[in-house]
Amino acid sequence: MNPNPKYEALLTYLKQLDRVVLAFSGGVDSTFLLRAAKEALGDNLKAVTILSPYIPKWEIEEAKELVGELGVDYEIIEAPLIDSIKFNPEDRCYLCKTAVFSMIKENAARGGYKYVIDGTNFDDIQDYRPGLKALGELGVKSPLRDCELTKAEIRSLSKELGLPTWDKPPYACLLTRIPYGNELKVEDFEKIERAETYMMDLGFRAIRVRCHGDLARIEVGRSDRSRLFDEELMDQISEKLKEFGFRYVSLDLAGYKTGSLNAAIGVGVTG
Predict the structure, then answer these.
(1) Cα separation of 201 and 197, whole Å?
(2) How far apart are CA 224 and CA 199, in angstroms?
(3) For residue 85, which of 1, 57, 92, 206 is within the disulfide window of CB 3.0 to 4.6 Å?
(4) Contact (Cβ atoms closer than 8 angstroms) between residue 170 and residue 258
């Protein structure tokens, strides 16, 4: 890879942290940060992934593979669905991040690691992301944000580094598929995950299946909407999602839009 001033600044930043635990999801940002941290810190790096009912199983498996390829010390921490978000409050991201990153901080302290870092990038500070408040309160560092690396730059550098995630579509936890104020149920997460996995297997890259009780509202990328006008495919998808537990299956005519469920509280956020 050709020298890049921001990448070099990131390596310098990371070296100053000495020993770190990285909260690793397997997404574009955290994979890029994992690669850079491995280069900067070597064995003074540990990756931690959260295993929770609202994290898809396929995402956990992908995270395992990525960490294994980079040869980083790794641990999966099980995190239950906490009582404070049981009814999906508007501040659920803040409450969830506070609980999860407190667990990661405790894990880091037991292992003698000085800092916890995460993959928040420079663009994220422009979004509605209440979880960032929790990270700040807990002293979690965000090297990509601090070094002003944007999503586009991270994708470009990831491609140069040969990382398989460079063009991975954005993906958020399954909490974002359920409207605020609705009770969170493990069985809903399971049917959402099965539905989205099925749609991805059909070749839909940007896909969200929003869960409104027993109704599934499918959002696909604008370039994929025309594919769903095939009656045979619509019947196939409807039948399959009903097998997964939905009673009704609908298509959002506007297509995939980040944070579509946040319209109810007057904000927008990736999810």
Answers:
(1) 6
(2) 11
(3) 92
(4) yes
Phi and psi for 154 in degrees, rounded to 5? -65, -40
- CA end-to-end distance (rounded Å), the chain: 32
pTM score of the predicted model: 0.90
H runs (alpha helix) in 139-253: 143-146, 151-160, 186-201, 231-243
Name the pairing type of β-strands 207-212 and 215-220.
Answer: antiparallel
Is-contact 196 208, C-beta < 8 A?
yes
Distance CA 151, CA 228 (A): 29
* List of residues 6+ apart from 175 with CB closer than 8 A: 54, 85, 88, 92, 93, 96, 184
* Residues 137, 12: Cα–Cα separation, whole Å: 24
Order of all β-strands in the sheet with 115-117: 73-78, 45-51, 20-23, 115-117
> One-letter amino acid identity for 84?
S
The stretches of 74-214 forming alpha helices (DSSP H) are: 92-110, 131-138, 143-146, 151-160, 186-201
What is the phi/psi pair of residue 196, to 5°? -70, -40
Are 121 and 29 in contact, with CB atoms under 8 Å apart?
yes
H helix or E strand, kind and range, residue 62: helix 57-70
